[in-house]
Design a protein that fits this description.
199 residues; alpha+beta; 4-stranded antiparallel sheet; 4 helices; 40% strand; elongated
């Protein structure tokens, strides 16, 4: 089950709901949001293929994380003392995604208000100055985490901060449930791409 404990202590569950063609065969999914087991909103009309592809890309990127960062759940870079933080940050931009928003799904119909429901994951970074010891230079550490925000149709919003591993585990659980509702996305043999939905 794809669920997360949020900062306010509530549990958000994301459940796929099938989207069927004219013949009644499911081919895609919409996401139903539950908060503490109660309906919270419906978002992401036909978002299953996108989520499956995003999950495959995150899975493929995991080996690029340093082992210590994987265990700690963060990606970190160190910058030597003597470099202006702003300059260092600009220099590091090519290591980070350009778009800080990994995905944003709103309510099912394009003309629905944002308050009808939303599920958004952004990548956010935090800079911490680590002072040097015993004459060694200090350094900047930049930690990247994923922040999931969900808004329900009643106007309530919740937030969860996730490590890369936690985000991947959540998406893997969600994509794993797609087959149960009839929407299956098959990876190529080399895992580089997804084929069209099967089923």
């Amino acid at each position: 089950m794809a669920e997360l404990r949020c900062a306010d202590g509530s549990v958000v569950t994301v459940r796929p709901v099938p989207v069927s063609g004219r013949d009644g065969t499911p081919y895609e999914v919409t996401l139903q949001l539950l908060r503490d087991g109660q309906p919270f909103g419906e978002v992401g009309e036909r978002c299953g293929y996108f989520l499956a592809a995003t999950t495959a890309r995150l899975r493929a990127a995991q080996p690029d994380f340093p082992p210590s960062s994987l265990e700690a759940g963060v990606r970190s870079w160190a910058v030597d003392d003597g470099i202006e933080p702003g300059v260092a940050w600009v220099d590091l931009q090519h290591y980070l995604p350009r778009d800080r928003e990994l995905f944003c799904f709103r309510s099912r119909d394009p003309d629905d208000l944002g308050s009808s429901g939303e599920l958004r994951v952004t990548l956010e970074e935090e800079r911490t100055w680590l002072p040097g010891r015993d004459g060694a230079h200090g350094r900047w550490r930049i930690d990247c985490c994923a922040v999931l925000r969900a808004w329900g149709s009643g106007g309530i919003g919740v937030r969860a901060v996730l490590s890369s591993g936690e985000l991947l585990a959540f998406l893997e659980a969600l994509v794993g449930e797609f087959a149960a509702v009839g929407a299956t996305y098959a990876e190529d043999d080399d895992g580089s791409a997804l084929r069209r939905p099967v089923g």
